[in-house]
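Progress report, Aim 2. The chain analyzed during this reporting quarter is listed below.
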Amino acid sequence: MGLFDSLKKKDEKPKPKKKPPAAVKKSVTAPRRDIDVVPLEEDVIAKEIVKPQIRYLKKIVVTSYADLERISEELQNGNIVLVDLTPLEVKPEVLEKVAEQLKGMVGALGGQAAKICKHEIKLILVPSDIKIAK
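Predicted structure tokens for the chain:
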């Protein structure tokens, strides 16, 4: 006889499982066919509002004033623009005018601009709904 034999109950039978009462019993019924589900107008509008807008990050190398129009179009479309002004380093007077034009354009559109390189003249321009943490 072992030390723990007295703790075991040899004659104990397993208890039968009890069935839940009829009130608690879960019954599955077929879905009703007489009810039509009509989508709400608000649901349709909410799906259109939440639909993500595709945006692009575009690099534009500025060599003349004509490139400023393309940059403006991209910002108005909501895209982020990386502007490379290094080709204008040899023309400081043009570089200064282009930089002023870019600054005014971004300000008028409500966006932001920041320099992203120390040794080269590269800027990032973002539309009004994106902010740069400086």
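The chain has a mean pLDDT of 81. The chain is about 30% helix and 15% strand. These observations will guide the mutagenesis work planned for the next reporting period.
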